[in-house]
Each structure stands twice: as structure tokens, then as C-alpha cells.
Specification:
Elements lengths: L1 H8 L13 H8 L1 H4 L8 H6 L7 H5 L2 H10 L13 H15 L2
Helix pairs in contact: 2-7, 6-7
């Protein structure tokens, strides 16, 4: 009974902004379905929704603030993640996107 109660309460407890997930795991969990593991958006869904190729010059030349803004607020068919990710997680994703462009 205690375990059931604990499991029921866990989602209600506020999680720290950076809850131990690194940018790569966040990307793979939340972004790779459309943008692909390599960021090139060659997934079935990515092609259907015309997801951005994160390795492209257009994306790589965008400022960190612009990329953060897209992650927070969404763009076109991309959902907003500002309510789901903390500022540190979003900064980590921007850094991860930069790494994708250098591969």
C-alpha cells in the first residue's frame, strides 16, 4: 500500500530543472522522432511534417537565442517545449544541436 501511495504522489513532486537527463537523452526522447538520431530529419514523420534538418547551414547559423526560442515556443508543426523543459535543458539542447552540425 505504501508503494502504491508513493508511486501516486511521485508525479506531483516538483522535479529540479535539470533532473539528471543530459541533452543527448532529451534529444533522443523528445526530438529524434522527427529530426532523427543524426538531426537530418530523414525519419518518416520528419519528412511528413517537413522538420528542419538540424545539421543544415540555416539552422547552424541561427543564434543560440533563436534556437532556444524555437524550442521554447515551437514553430510550424513543431510543438513548444517551454513548459516541459527547464532553461538549462533547453541550453543543453542548443549545444547538442551545434554538435550535430559539426559531425
Amino acid at each position: 500500500m505504501l508503494l502504491i501511495t508513493a508511486l501516486g504522489v511521485t508525479p506531483l513532486v516538483a522535479q529540479p530543472e535539470d533532473s539528471g537527463k543530459d541533452a543527448a537523452s532529451i534529444f533522443h526522447q523528445r526530438c529524434s522522432g522527427c529530426h532523427g538520431q543524426d538531426g537530418k530529419a530523414q525519419t518518416f514523420v520528419g519528412k511528413r511534417v517537413h522538420a528542419a534538418d538540424l545539421t543544415s547551414q540555416v539552422v547552424q547559423q541561427a543564434s543560440d537565442a533563436a534556437l532556444s526560442d524555437v524550442i521554447k515556443k515551437g514553430k510550424a508543426k513543431m510543438p513548444a517545449f517551454g513548459e516541459k523543459l527547464g532553461a538549462g535543458e533547453i541550453q543543453g539542447l542548443v549545444a547538442y544541436i551545434r554538435q550535430l552540425g559539426s559531425r
